[in-house]
Amino acid sequence: MNALLVIDVQNGIVNCGDYKEELFLIEQVIKDFKESNRPVIFIRHIDDTEESPLNRSSIGSEIHPSIKGYSDYIIEKHTPSAFFQTELTKTLGKLGVDHLFIIGFETEFCCMFTAIAAYDRGYKVTFIKDATGTTNNAESYGMQGLDIKQFVGTVLRWSSVIEVVDYAEYAEKYK
């Protein structure tokens, strides 16, 4: 069975920039999964430091209102990997999931770490790169011209173990 992981689409991240395109694609993938009765699992990053925009008691830690009503499950995490010390493995086991689709935020951290961790746990993984976003950019890393989504997509594709697609390829193959 297929399941969708929607990673860290939270106010404290989404409100940091203009992510209209990413949010549109994220919602399209979610709707595809909902229409075919496949599980949609939201991953919510919680940071315990008081000044963090993802602090549990802040509005920043809440799921962004554009997608809030779509979740079948919400799993909280404290690290980039949605698997590390969470209920995700148990939830996926109960559902009989063997193929995970990954979308959401912090492409080069939470999305990539979760994709790799999923593969390491025996799941088939499809990473929909243009349905991810990041608050970082080339300037953040001091790497002029860096396209983070393209870079992460290339690295994961070269691994030969994680399928990387853009939304159009996903829609053609899996819709």
From TrEMBL:
Q: Which GO terms describe its molecular function?
A: hydrolase activity
Q: Which residue numbers delimit the Isochorismatase-like domain?
A: 3-156
Keywords attached to this entry: Hydrolase
Which segments of the protein form a coiled coil according to its record?
none
Q: What range does the record give for the signal peptide?
A: none
Name the Pfam families on file: Isochorismatase (PF00857)
InterPro entries assigned = Isochorismatase-like_dom, Isochorismatase-like_hydrls, Isochorismatase-like_sf
Family that this chain belongs to:
Belongs to the isochorismatase family.
Can you say what this protein is called? Isochorismatase
Q: Which organism is it from?
A: Brevibacillus formosus
